[in-house]
Amino acid sequence: MAVKVRREHLDRIIAQARAEAPNECCGMLAGRGEVVEEVFPGRNKDQSPRTYLMDPEDQLRAFRAIDERGWDLVGIYHSHPQTEAVPSRTDRERALDQSGTPLFPETRYVIVSLRDAAQPQVRAFRIADGRFTEEDVVVL
Question: CA 5, 66, 60, 127 torsion: positive or negative?
């Protein structure tokens, strides 16, 4: 499996990550199946370099647009300003409900690492059986 994203969408996400550093940025990816059609940047309510919580108003705005266009929630993205593009313990905990069930089981979690600011790393993960499994990021 893979998440497919256009170069201009990826550039927007990376620009947001750079603009919001040293804090994490966040947002949602919408489209059909595994193909991203639109990026919905969000405000990080945590305003933290280690965690993110997308503003509920931004989430609602994104979900309304997704519903109106008949799209799917393809992914949830955020940045790691200083660390690798792998799910942190907090990322893992917040992706699951209290029973350990994924909140968005069909959704990819896309992480942008700015550890090497000159060459940001972008990786995608999906939760299966309580584990994060890496998927390819294909740039269209």
Answer: negative
